[in-house]
Automatic annotation (TrEMBL):
<protein>
    <submittedName>
        <fullName>NADH:ubiquinone oxidoreductase subunit</fullName>
    </submittedName>
</protein>
<dbReference type="InterPro" id="IPR007763">
    <property type="entry name" value="NDUFA12"/>
</dbReference>
<feature type="region of interest" description="Disordered">
    <location>
        <begin position="101"/>
        <end position="132"/>
    </location>
</feature>
<dbReference type="Pfam" id="PF05071">
    <property type="entry name" value="NDUFA12"/>
</dbReference>
Length: 132
């Protein structure tokens, strides 16, 4: 991405302002398996350390793993790696939020699937303003 893209876009990585702030005030705490980098620096209005993430790709909060979400919101103090239990065999790999993509869930009556749905089964009666 060129310099103009960095100045005028916020949805794909860090802007120039965020990059400068991170370089001046941030200290790297860690990185997750998706390549997102987590920083800490300064103090917020509540006296807590200020924490933020620089995404590797699109800025989508659903791409923050649960352990790093807890760290960002001060639920845990140290780097999440030291607080993680071993992975369970039934745990699935992360899948990104599919809303707005071709992989999004679409029920049978959705316009993208033709807009047709099954008829009501008789337990439904349409409201009419003239009904008494």
């Amino acid at each position: 991405m060129g310099i103009l893209g960095k100045i005028f876009t916020w949805w794909d990585g860090a802007t120039i302002g965020t990059s400068l702030f991170t370089a001046r005030k941030g200290s790297k705490v860690g990185e997750d398996h998706q390549g997102n980098i987590y920083y800490q620096g300064g103090v917020d209005v509540n006296g807590l350390p200020r924490r933020w993430v620089i995404y590797n790709g699109a800025n989508d909060a659903s791409r923050v793993p649960a352990e790093w979400h807890g760290w960002l919101h001060h639920s845990i103090e140290g780097a999440p790696e030291s607080f993680l239990p071993p992975p369970r065999i039934w745990e699935r790999e992360f899948t990104p939020n599919a809303t707005g993509t071709v992989n999004a869930y679409r029920p049978s009556g959705a316009m993208e699937k033709g807009g047709l749905r099954q008829k009501a089964t008789g337990d439904y009666e349409a409201w009419s303003p003239d009904a008494s």
